[in-house]
Amino acid sequence: MHAPLWRVNYAANTSHGSVANTSEGKVQARAKMMKIGMTIRGYRLQKGLSQGDIEKRTGLLRCYLSRVENGHTVPSLDTLAKIAGALDLPLAQFFAEDSLGRELNTQKLTDDELRFLTQIRRYSSNLNDSDRKLLLAMVKKFAATAAK
């Protein structure tokens, strides 16, 4: 179901085919696992999708998707292709140099804020422009009132 850590170490090592058995190699491998998971989570949230939505589109279990996003599991290329398809992205987008990473790092949102924004995005996608503007005006008014 997922690649063992030695395979990730092997892929992470830049020397010609030797396996990185050092603790530094393992740290680099773990960092790569975390990066791909964070990239997947970022694109999923950016598109307003839940792990359940991805589960329905790919057949991959939510618990597995969670492990991938949290860097505990290394997905195969076939699995990454399924996830990319569910997100309407080319597979190569997951490996683009920090295209999403810079955007996500500047936001520094908590998990609660991300969940809230995901829900707003999901429900507002069914609204027309006029209703969206009305909703935004209501949120601004509520925020101004709550700040007093």
From TrEMBL:
One of its GO terms (cellular component) is cytosol. GO terms for molecular function: DNA binding; DNA-binding transcription factor activity. PROSITE patterns: HTH_CROC1. SMART domains: HTH_XRE (SM00530). It comes from the Bacteria. Coiled coil: none annotated. Keywords: DNA-binding. SUPFAM superfamilies: lambda repressor-like DNA-binding domains. Residues 40-94 form the HTH cro/C1-type domain. This is DNA-binding protein. It comes from Acidobacterium capsulatum (strain ATCC 51196 / DSM 11244 / BCRC 80197 / JCM 7670 / NBRC 15755 / NCIMB 13165 / 161).
